[in-house]
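## tool: complex_structure
## caller: assistant
## args:
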Amino acid sequence: MRNAHLRKRSSGIVRFLNVLIVVTALAAVISLIRLVGEFRSAFDRDRYSDLEYYLQQGEYADMVRQYYYRYYDVAPFSSAHEEAYHVAGYADAAFRHRFYEAIGDQERAEALARRMETERKGSGSLAIAADDIDRLLEDIPSGH
Amino acid sequence: MKCRNCGGEVGLEERFCPYCGTPNEQAIRHFQNMADYQERYAATEANVVGAAKRYAQIIPRVVAALVLLIAAVAMAVVAEKAYAFPEQMRRRAAEKDPEGTIAVMEGYLAQGDYLAFASYADFNDIRSYNSPFEAYYGVRWVAQYYKDVVLRMERLYLHQDREQWAARRAPDDIQALCRSLEDFFDTLERGTRDMASDAHRAYIEDMRGNVMEMLQVYLGLEGEEAERFLTLSTNRKAALLEEVLLDA
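## result:
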């Protein structure tokens, strides 16, 4: 009788443990999927890739901020975002070029002019955005 | 032993005296005891075997559940930190080649490209409070705030739709620029004593000079006007800039 009671109790414990194993296995699988996803995201070159959105909105300053997030990566963005990346680089170079020109620092202005040329070439089909940036900067140093 | 009745020799396993046939009570008790013993033994054996079987079912399951739980928790913790891995890898690469890293940073400083310098140091997570980069602690600190000032200045102008910017984002962007300027000059003031002996003070002074020039070039504030502007509270600075930038 005692044995029957113990068998009944232990089968209950075994069932509970079976359920627990299933639950923890599910949790482990979910954690594994999340872990893989987080690592892929961490190493994703296009993690900060709202460049096209900001370009569409005409928000070049936001593009520049993203540009600097990945400035020194071997391949800052995948080829899908490369042109927009160069538009961001052009915006930054053009803005600072205006500044150094205005204060008469020709050496730095020329270095930035060279960078502007490189970035404009890299912007490919989006070069029209570079023209737009030039237009926006025309009022600087009067500025406003 | 001897029979109680006739005194004859009777074995423990003889239930009756072989001489007079009297029941051997000791033998009867013996057989009873043996039967009880065997019954208890069987019951104990059944309990032990049953318990062993139960534990054989329970313990592996408990171990499996624990291992899976620990694995799930460990992976969740690592996943939380995954974003930092690329940065850590870059930092280790920079620390493995300090001469190369320093050469790159010195190159940017020499060119006056402080945004590139700050970005490079951030991207590679250069620990400028540790050897061998401790000489760059001061200049890096200032360069980070300088970069923020420049990027916020850019925000004032690099908008395709200036009217929409003026209506929606201008006040916040202007406030952010004012705070950024305050942070930059606070940093210079707090670090003045250390920066006087800083190996890179020429670059720090260059950044200070650039920011003062930016106040003139981008905000139309010259000389004393710029100095006075910097003494205003954040809100008064913002109000002045809104007047300058939005009402013109």
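## assistant note: Residues 2-42 of chain A form the longest helix (41 residues). Chain A touches chain B through 59 residues (CB under 8 Å). Handing back to user.
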